[in-house]
Each structure stands twice: as structure tokens, then as C-alpha cells.
Amino acid sequence: MDRRHALCTLTALPLVGIRLQAFAAPASGCKFLLVFLRGGLDTTSVVVPVGSEFYYRVRPNIAIGAPGTQADGALPLDSYWGLHPALRETLMPLYAQKQVAFVAFAGTDDVSRSHFETQDSIELGQGLGSGRDFGSGFLNRLASVVAGMNPIAFTEQLPLCMRGEHRIGSMALQSVAKPAIDPRQRDLIASMYAPTRFSVPVGEGFAVREEIMRDLADEADTAGRGAVLPKGFERDAQRMGKLLSESFDLGFIDVGGWDTHVGQGGAKGYLANRLDELGRGLAAFAAEMGPHWRDTTVVLMSEFGRTMRENGNRGTDHGHGTTYILVGGAVRGGRFAGEQQEVTEAGLFQKRDLPVLNEYRAVLGGLFARLYGLRSDQLERVFPGAHARDLQLV
Amino acid sequence: METHAARRTKPVSLFVGYRGYMDYRFLRFVVLLALSLASVAGAALLSACANQSGSASSPPRGAAVAAQSQEQPIDRDAAGLLDRISWGVTASAYQQVRAQGAARWLADQLQPDERASLPPAVQEQIAAMSIERTSLTELVYALEAQRKSAEEITDDAAKKAAQHDYQLELNRLAREAANRELLRDLYSPKQLQEQMTWFWVNHFSVHQQKHLIRAMVGDYERVLRAHALGSFRDLLAVSAHHPAMLTYLDNAQNATGHINENYARELLELHTLGVNGGYTQHDVQELARVLTGFGVNKNDPVASEAPRVRPALAAQYVRIGLFEFNPNRHDYGDKVVLGQTIRGRGASELDEVLDMLSRHPATARNVSRKLAQFFVADEPAPSLVAAMQKEFLRSNGDIAATLRAAFDSPQFAASLHTKFKDPMHFVVSAVRLAYDGKPIVNANPMVNWLNRLGEAPFNHATPDGYSLMESAWDGPGQMAVRFEIAKAIGMGSAGLFKSEGPNAAEKPAFPQLANALYYESTEHNLASATRQVLEQAVSPQEWNLFLLSSPEFMLR
After folding, report:
1. CB-based burial, B100-111: b 16+ in 10 Å, e otherwise
2. What is the pLDDT of residue A111?
3. Which residues in chain A have their CB less than 8 angstroms from residue B464's CB?
């Protein structure tokens, strides 16, 4: 990949990853956030094929109406696709500003339709067929080939995609609380570890927490003045925005609750409520990033899409192809990217699901190559054996 | 800050009412004096000191003397031995090892007395649990009825509420299993068996979040415990027939014409031979064929029809609890696994394969190495693994014999105090140290800590189980959280004595860690940097925080 395409001022490493300096000056350049929607989001309800007669035929109870056909119909994206109306105030304005792009018919070649199997194989990013190394995820490998990265997982456990040789910290944002250890105790504890092999992680551990608390300090002030803080994902997203704009540059968070086998609803209902929350989170994140938003890329992805046909419980079952959503000031948006086809009965994969025309390692590999100016040998480390495709997403 | 200032001016009055900080210094003086005067009677004296805080009665003097006379090198480090063989040193266990001698204590641990029981207060908590009072089969029948009645509700909102209740019940059962496991780890006298139970649950790992596994993990742990120090062949059979495993690795879906290789692959890769154990993709496919028809039936046979089976095969149908072998779903062709022809004939094909796998040298090596990683070092010496492998093969997969080969090795004795505690060992050893002889009433805070540290019971998403290596657990976030947990335990405000339910109040109490055990067994192993910090503690609670946060406490 040509270095001139690199958006960011970070430098790709020539060799094996070096250890990052703990909380030196934040790396200037791009900010990347992966939002993993666990449970198999029904992206057909998010990015709706309003031009497909087949879609309306097989989803008699849960389809989203075409734009203009009803008060809460889909919002027009182009002549064929529409956006879920729950995203009217949040994602739609960003789309209008050309900061949202969609990669429909995306996903993995894994056809197990198992949440775990598919999430794992995506997060490991090692390709199918080979022996899997559960100790090496693709975001960790990315952090090892790009110099100066300061990654973090906003989760309790380090997710598979961030496991590996590059040391990455994690901290869930739901339970951010003032550290119980006061500064005097912190210094005393650190002094016990000075002569040991743990002195670096102990020092970094205190530093990460302080970094997070410092970045989030004015949140407490806001609350102290009686302002109502947002809840759930919106609050977490706001915190992520603060942390990614101030200290970190590669983030991961997962959001669950998308496994809608029963009563998923249409323009209103369960899924609409979850999408509303997700959209508000993205808007809050964008606002919090401030001037960094123009250098930001957020990728929202789920392990698979769901069946085209609704099931007997007004829900949908595990499917295959899904739609990736890219949001951010760095995104070349307002459009669909990648291979596409019409949504028809004949075009279904195994007569039930959307097909995968845009394999995730190719898509993300192409994206990372443009963002970080990765050479082909570095791409090969991030996604071994994959053939990156440049969809000019940024 | 207030206490810090107060300490400078009025150090003694601050601790009036505690048997606290200043008292410990006096206690240390007494203990050290006594030990130097009469080292042979050390164990008896120690127990006398500990009796001040209401611990167990002193062992017969004769026993202590006898143990002393045939003292082995390992006898001189009872605390180190306990930190490795048990879930963590406690005052009472320390006395027991000193009294019995390490060799005798270790032999008891390897072959535990079935009559050795939990303290009554702990046994009562466990006996009240649904997972103790109701069989797995009955639990699942009830859950299935609950699920089906929820499904029949036509109103979407009411259906969602009913389904929510169903999920809460599943969560409750998983919570019980986690609580029971932790209570046993804390208070069971059969400590090695409890460690091995965790080891096997982790080796044959299942993830509670899938389907009904939350209801199954309690039973899964129970049956693995029964064989934890027994034969590997039995352990393998238990996991291969348990609904939790058959569900988790999708073998319940594996049927002739609809092959699912998931379990077959992990059975070879993780449970037996190991990833470089010499099997091929073809072996995986053939083993998957052997495994066809082994599944789970969640229907109460009284209330539902039995699956239809061709008359010629009906006699081969097996139903034991939730486990089902359905001949209609089995591939009756011959298979070749690892070069051995398995004549197609039904359920006994799997027995033949498990025999072969459990006796395979690659399995012996893979399991021995993993045991050595758990009990000796992240990178165990090849000679140690070879000795264990040899014993595994000689004893036909006897786990106690294989462990004995490890424990008798010079590498084991040399490795004490060097293995980094994973979160389970950190959390459990801290609570054991703090509340030996004073059983906690609520293990939920421990589950929450383990969740924060990423090693909660039955919660590893992938089939490889939690890592046994230091590098998985010594990251920055991990260490920072450990210190906060150390503080919660050290301050006594952790919620461990707060019973469930409304208006439950916790009696404020903090543990006494600066005790006879500390001065006898711990202090001399501390680095000077650690001792200097402990001396700067301004309260006994803070002293606890520093001890539980010390580098030495992170090692076992």
C-alpha cells in the first residue's frame, strides 16, 4: 500500500512491535474505535432494502416502511436503501454530512452461525482453516505494527481482538469510580514493586486509572451541578469520546443485546429502542471528540446478520451477511462501498441469508492500510493470508 | 489524612479497642521469643497463640514432635506448600501441616478422606441451594416448562417479561454454582481436590452464557469434582456425556448428514492430544462421525413422546438424565481415527475412542504439561513433564499418581513462592487468609471481583479455558484492580458478611492479618521494600491493604 495514502502521522513499524511508552504525549493522527455489536444485529432493519419487493414479502410484521409511505418510514439513503427511523436525529445528520458509509453484504466466511464461533474467528482475524491461536487478535497485531499507538479496551476483560504480545489495558466504563487507593497508598504500593518484575505494569495500572479519572473529572463536576448524566451506552460513549480525544487512539467496546429471536419490532419496539440508544451514543461520542472527530473512524460490526425471513415469533434467526457501518470525520461517507447486489430470493445464501460479498479481513485490511500506511508485509501480520481491498473508506 | 496526622501525635490511643497494630508488635515479640526458646514445640505454641482468636484446638504434642523428627526440606516451608497445594495458606491449615508433617498432609490431600467435611455454617449455606436440592434433570424440565409457557404468551410485552423472568432464573442458578464453588475453595478441608476441580472445569471448559448452560454448570462441576483426583479416562467420559459440554461445543447438533465438528476438534486439540498431538483434519472429521447422535434431550419423558427410533435400532437408544444417544442420528459406518478402525456399531464406539485417547502418549504429555504449569511453573522443565508423562502412562491416567510425581520432584520444591497468582488464586487466597475460621455468608462480592479481573467461574467464552500463565494476568489494569480488592478485603467492608435481601446490614469487621501466622511464616519471606511499607501503615486496616497488595502476596 502506498504510504502517501496514509491518513495518520503515526509511523508503521519496520519490524516486530516495540513497547509503547507509557502515556507519553498522545500520538497525533487518527483515532480508531471498533464497536462490536454482539448477538448478531439485524442490519436489514438498520440499513433497510426499501427497494426490495422480496424484503416486504418475507417480513410482513417487522419490515420498516419505505420512505414516505408512512409517518415512521425509513429515512432515504439512496434510491434502494433507507435508514431506520430511530436514527433520524443521530446517524442521519452525520450521513448528510458525508460522515457515514455502509458496507452491505459484509461479513465472514465462517458459516457456523454460532455467536461464539463467529465472534471468535472475527476477533482473532486469522482466517479459517488454519489452527487458531486464541492469544492473538487483529487489533493487537495492528497495535504491534503501528508505532506509538496507545490502545485501550473499554471492557472488563480484554477482548480476543486485543489479546496478544502488545500490552493493552482495559477498563469498563460502567463502573468508573474514584480509585479506592489514595495517592499516598499508591506511592507506597508502587515502592514495594520497584524491585520486582511487576514494577512496569503496576506503574502503568495506576497511570491508566488516573488518566481516565482525570479525563472524566469534569463529568463529576457536571453531575455536581445537577445536570442529568446520560445512561447506558450513551454515557459510555461520551466517556469514550473524552478518553479517545485526550489520551488514547485505538479503542474497543462491545454492546450486546442484538439477538432478536422474538418480538424485535419494526419502526418501534425493542430493536428500535436499542438503535435509538446506539445512535445517541454515536452522536454523543462525535460531539465529545471535538476537533479530533475529523481524524476519527468508528467501525460498527456484528458477527453476522440475521435471516431475511421473519420467524414465527416476529423475530429473526442467525444469518450470514451483515452490513458494516463506518462513522467519523475521516470517513468518506454519504455512500455505500463494496460489492452489492439486489436483495432477492434468488440472491440468498443457502436460501435464507444475505450473502457475504465483502469479506471482513479484506475490508478492514484495506481500511487499516489507508489509515496507517501499512505495507503489504505489515498487513500480512495483521490479517495473515487475507487480500486487502481498498474500498476508499477514508 | 486524618488518621495519618493522628498517628504522629497519639499513636496508641488510635488503636484502643482493636487488638490491632501495636498489639501485633507485642504478639510478634511473644511468638519469636517462644519459638527461639522451644523450637521443637513450635507448632503447639503457635496454636496456643492462635487460640486467642478462637482457632482450632492444639494438636497433641506427640504429633508435633514426631513430625519434627522426620522433617523433610518441604516441612520447613509449610506456608509455601499450602500456597501451592491449597487455595492459600491459613492459620489453621498451617498448624495442621506443622503438626502432621508435610508428607502426611500431602498424602491426605492426594487421597482425601471422604468424611472430611465443610464447617457446619458453610454446609448449611450450600445445602439451602437449589442446585443441591434439585437434580439437574428436574431443574431443566422446570426451566423448559417456564420457557414454553412464556413462548405461548401472545402479548409481546407480557412475553418479554416472562422471558426476562426465565433469564433471571438461569442467572440465579449460575450464581449458586459460583457461590458453592467459592465456598468450597475457601473452606473445604480437601483443598487439593478443590483446586483440581477448578483445573478440570477449566480444562473441559464450558461457557455459561450459551443456552441453558447456566443451569448446568453446578452439576458439571459436581461430577468433575468426584473424579478430580481419580482417573483421566473417567474425567474424559464425564465431560463427553455431560449436557453442558454437549451443548457448549454443539455436539447436540451433530448428526449423520449434518456433521458438526466443533466438539470433535476440541476433544483432540484441547482435551486430550494437544494441538501438536499428531492428529489431522481427517481424524477430526472421523471423530465427529463417531460422535454423531450423542446429544441432549431436555424433554421430560413423562410429559413428552420419546424420539422415534427405527425398530431395528430401538434397543440402542440411551437416555440417562438429559443425556441421550439417539441411534437415528448416529452414523453407523466404520471410521478410522488415528489409524485405528472403529467398527460402526453405536454408542460404544465412543468408549473405544476415549480408551485410545486417554492412553495416548500425546495425551499423557499434554495433560502432564498442563498440570505442571498449574502446580510448578509456566514453562515446566522438560524432565519434569517427562517424569509425569511416564507416571500418567504407567498408572493408566491416575491423576493423583501423576501429581505425586510432580510434588516429589526437586523442581516443585524449588518453585514455591514463584508462581504468579491468577485472579482466582489471588481472590480466594486473600479471603482464606482473612476469614479462616469465620465463614463468610455471601460470596457474590468475590464473583464480582473475579468478573472485574476476568476470571469468573464458568465464564470463559472460548473452549481453551482460562490461561495458566503469568502473562495473561499481570497487565496494568489487572494490578490496579487487585489493589482495590485488597483494600476492600483489608478494610472489612467488602460485603462478604452481608446476607442477601432487603435491610441486610453488614457487621463492620476487618480481618486481623498481622497475626501469629504472619510473624511465624510470612514476615521472614518479605523483601525489605515490603517490610518498610508495612511499617508505614497508619491503621491495621491499611496494614492489611499493604500485605494483600504486596508483591509477595501475588505469588504462590
Report:
1. bbbbbbbebbbe
2. 83
3. 134
